[in-house]
Amino acid sequence: MAERSSTVFSSTDVRALTLSLTALADGTRWAEALEILASAPAARLDPDILTLNAVFDALERGGRGQDVSQLYEEAVAAGALPPPLITSGRVLDLHDLPVQVAVAAVRATISGASRQAKLDHSVAQRGLLIITGQGMHSSDSEAVVQPAVKDVLRREGVLAFAPARFVGPRKGPKQAAGQEPGMLVVPPNELRRFWDRHRLGQSGLSQAASDRGCGRDRLPAGRRSSASRSG
């Protein structure tokens, strides 16, 4: 069992909270990260987007993607995180989002779980365009959001996606002929296939939970308590 953190935070030290949570992202201490996050209100701390990104990172590395999704939805509903930014009915803009928040936004959008993700009906005919950026604002000018987005799409079972295509001259050395390196497109037939499979999967999960008479593996309103650790 991981040693309990003894860090004490001042009422304004959100940065210290974030740094402490970042140190827990080794894949084994996700429960401790949730515990520290749950203690923030008592310390009069208001976690920001980087704080939540650190918690999401700890959960993702611990294989707790479903917990990330529920915590993300709670944070969006509470106004702690912006809802997925959908423009033109089919464009998911991940600009200026830290990596794990961007990943959570993608997962919520493609699954239809986010009530705030207002996709136009035309996305079923034209596909979903995801703007990831090219890493120009990262510390080493390398793209970090797009590889993470590709990874979560594959893990969620969305296997057919490609760089967006454009008409015009190349805009820089990273741009292959006819491709926009900072954007991905999920084609409409792949989205429909994913949605059909997702609906069937959700139906099966709901029936299994009903048969068991419980659904305790989800974060409750607020935060999951430390008593519900399950490895």
From TrEMBL:
Origin: domain of life: Eukaryota
UniProt cross-references to InterPro entries, sorted A to Z: Smr_dom (IPR002625), Smr_dom_sf (IPR036063)
Gene3D superfamilies linked to this entry: 3.30.1370.110
Biased composition (Low complexity): 222-231
PROSITE patterns to which the protein is assigned, alphabetical: SMR (PS50828)
Region (Disordered): 202-231
Residue stretches making up the Smr domain: 92-170
Protein name as catalogued: Smr domain-containing protein
